[in-house]
Amino acid sequence: MLKDRTQMDGSRVLLCVCGGIAAYKAVEVLRVLQRAGCAVRVVSTEGALRFVGRATWEGLTHAPLATDLFDCDTSSIPHVENAGWADAVLVVPATANVMAKMACGLADDLVSATLLAMPAGTPVVVAPAMNVHMWQAPATQANVATLRSRDVRLVMPVPGRLACDDVGEGKLAAVEAIADAVLEALREAADADGPGAVKTPDAAPLAGMHVLVTAGPTHEAIDPVRYIANASSGKMGYAIAEEAALRGARVTLVSGPTALAVPRGVERVDVVSAAQMHDAAVAAFVDADVAICAAAVADYTPKFVADHKLKKANERLDVIELVETVDILAELSATKRAGGRRRVVVGFAAETNDLARNAQAKLGRKGCDLIVANDVTRADSGFGRDTNHVSFVGADGVEELPTLTKHEVAERLLDRVAELL
Ligand code: PMT
User: Same structural domain for residues 342 and 249?
Assistant: First the structure.
């Protein structure tokens, strides 16, 4: 058994969950892989959702769960996109049904279509679990043999008392054994020079770069218990930070208050107010090559902060005098060429109307290289959502993207940043 489960920085694992009682064990496998440093995406059959619900997967991966072949817009084909993204794929629990589909090449749902769409050489790990008679059925055993002949790695089920109370082979292998099989496959692929090589090193265009990302809201204190804030969850900025780290960058994430976990490989600096965010961002920018300001920074802050809780009976709460905060994005843009360096600064613009025109004005006013204009009026976009609808507004014009997950927006944005660099 492998002991080192800590060195897989950013390797991409696609976890296909199928409908069996052991689906809950897939949650533990996901956690072990995440702790080992893997980026994990999940696709689930509809049947599997009866065992482990959508909220669990979305909560653990911070991404929408895909279950439907046709649940997409015209710009993305989820089974092809997910298959191309993965360095390795894991099927757990692998039911008799999904193994039969794999053996025959059937593609009638998202999981089976994704498995069929895996590029040659991508390691496929399958951990079966089912009733002992289903496991021993000649059809299943023939399918197992077929999969093995195609270099699919099987983490064999173990004997024991099964959910149906039968005793025999069919119990899902131990979580650690399954995770180890995936990690071993990733390491072998990384060592190999062939098409199965892990994509991360090749996709590390930001290696050696320092990327600064601001994310989340700021809280501007009125008194010790009250503050001015906004609805930013931090998801957009965190997705950018995570993707930049996956691409090999050193990443400093200056984050306002959020409920999100620090992405793997990212150094987070926690701040509360706009003034603190300014100081942290300016300090990190000293040796940064790229700054991406996704935070929703308060434009105004109370002129005076009371040192005690204001009483509504005898103190003024209906009028709060405000002063403008310092514009972090504008300041970073103004200093980006200091010392003759060529650095890239990207701002966001949360807009409710005249998106492109307002973003173009902001591009000029703030002096940055690119504005990500964010339509925050749509139900599938903006504050707190998992998806976003944005346009890239630069000196060369406006590129409107379809609605994408925030991770996909981050991927597209970092492609664009790489071009600007
Ligand atoms: O966090 P999520 O819930 O995922 O939501 C994402 C988001 C909607 C917050 C994000 O996509 C977004 O649009 N961020 C910018 C929000 C915003 O404050 O926009 P703005 O138009 O007010 O500011 C323009 C730019 O100036 C932004 O890059 C902002 O970070 C920056 N700014 C603003 C004020 C200030 N004092 N300093 C700044 O740096």
Answer: yes
